[in-house]
Amino acid sequence: MSDTLEQYPTTATAPPLVKSVYAKVLWRLMPFLLLAFIVNAIDRVNLSFAKLRMAEDILLSDAAYGIGAGIFYLGYILFEVPSNLYMQRVGARVTLTRIMVLWGLVTVATAFVTSANQLIAARFVLGIAEAGFFPGVILYMTYWLPASLRGRVTAGFLMSAMVAGIICGPLSGVIMTHLDGWLGFKDWQMLFILTGAPTILLGVFGWFWLTDRPEQATWLSDDEKRQITQALASEPHTTHSHFGGVLRDPRLYIAGLVYFCIYSGSNTVTYWIPTLIRGFGLEDLKQIGVLAALPFLVALCAMYLLGRSSDRHMERRWHLGLTMLVGAGSFALLGLVQGNVVLSIFLMSLGAAAALSAIPLFWTIPPALLSSAGAAGGIAIISSLGNLAGVLSQAAVGAIKSATGSLYLAFDVMAAVMVLGALLLLIGIPAHRLRDSRTPR
């Protein structure tokens, strides 16, 4: 965390916060929150591995699987805003504990579904349970950290999702290979139980570990509390008086559509990579798990390198646009190399890494595109439009897979969607509209 602490704000009205105060806050809160986000990502995508064995047991078609994967986001979207509003009333400790315990319980309960309809219902309830977790954490950070740190902390959260992807594949492979029949449960049931139970325990631990506000922290001295509260109070506060103007800005919806296209590709990667790998002719679950981790490992490296390059050159559009086109090209070529396992794995890893790396690149654009007065509401709208891709794209992929028996056409469709997104970005959002395109921040 030392890189995060290299710069800290000074103002005319508040003394500078020394690195030791920042370090104390970050080391207290961030390990727990990062671990929670990793577990959160694993509990979302464990379904992609469970599908390999549960489909036959509960008569789960590819179309029904696509609906189940996508309906999660419908529940999430419907309850995201209410969850955040409730957090402002009762505090982060209560809210995050409630969210984690509930999603852990729903994950464990998914082990006991006996039909496709029950799975779809369980995924919808899981979306409701998880609703508000990530935005809640981002809001929680505003209670503790100044704006100069929050951007880097958010980037760390996004990168931790890649860590989850690296862990989830091999972990799922080991559980489903070695624990089939343990305590009378099937392999896919053990996967849900063993990935859901730690979330419950972590949520209970959070009740005792988290503190809502700096002034309530018994682990800070009075002087440290005063420095944090003064620094936060000295930051300018935005208003929403111009939000109506933001809603009339077509660039808001162009950005939302671009994010929709990106999320369509990245979500397809998240939920269908194990099935795609098995289509290469591989059946060993541990081998599939290891190979499924490759795209996330490549994406983790690509996120760092692309983000660093984008910041150094203060250029956003072409970095993002070309990344999307690389992903689209890799997806489109997959069908042409059928039968060549090495080339298939290479294109899968490159395309998936590009689709996943496009997400943090994209989120450098909305803050530079929107006015400070309308940024909060505008970003929420963009996020909601993107999350709709989680519902629609997975239903579409499942339907295509059921109709054709192959995932390659589905990946061709996602390639076309990503090309459309890149063109919308490069044509619909000119460089001169981005306030940080020339002046480093």
From TrEMBL:
<keyword id="KW-0813">Transport</keyword>
<feature type="transmembrane region" description="Helical">
    <location>
        <begin position="188"/>
        <end position="210"/>
    </location>
</feature>
<feature type="transmembrane region" description="Helical">
    <location>
        <begin position="100"/>
        <end position="120"/>
    </location>
</feature>
<feature type="transmembrane region" description="Helical">
    <location>
        <begin position="375"/>
        <end position="400"/>
    </location>
</feature>
<keyword id="KW-1133">Transmembrane helix</keyword>
<feature type="transmembrane region" description="Helical">
    <location>
        <begin position="406"/>
        <end position="431"/>
    </location>
</feature>
<dbReference type="InterPro" id="IPR036259">
    <property type="entry name" value="MFS_trans_sf"/>
</dbReference>
<keyword id="KW-0812">Transmembrane</keyword>
<dbReference type="InterPro" id="IPR011701">
    <property type="entry name" value="MFS"/>
</dbReference>
<protein>
    <submittedName>
        <fullName>MFS transporter</fullName>
    </submittedName>
</protein>
<feature type="transmembrane region" description="Helical">
    <location>
        <begin position="318"/>
        <end position="337"/>
    </location>
</feature>
<feature type="transmembrane region" description="Helical">
    <location>
        <begin position="285"/>
        <end position="306"/>
    </location>
</feature>
<keyword id="KW-0472">Membrane</keyword>
<feature type="transmembrane region" description="Helical">
    <location>
        <begin position="157"/>
        <end position="176"/>
    </location>
</feature>
<dbReference type="Pfam" id="PF07690">
    <property type="entry name" value="MFS_1"/>
</dbReference>
<dbReference type="InterPro" id="IPR020846">
    <property type="entry name" value="MFS_dom"/>
</dbReference>
<feature type="domain" description="Major facilitator superfamily (MFS) profile">
    <location>
        <begin position="29"/>
        <end position="433"/>
    </location>
</feature>
<feature type="transmembrane region" description="Helical">
    <location>
        <begin position="126"/>
        <end position="145"/>
    </location>
</feature>
<feature type="transmembrane region" description="Helical">
    <location>
        <begin position="62"/>
        <end position="79"/>
    </location>
</feature>
<feature type="transmembrane region" description="Helical">
    <location>
        <begin position="343"/>
        <end position="363"/>
    </location>
</feature>
<feature type="transmembrane region" description="Helical">
    <location>
        <begin position="25"/>
        <end position="42"/>
    </location>
</feature>
<feature type="transmembrane region" description="Helical">
    <location>
        <begin position="252"/>
        <end position="273"/>
    </location>
</feature>
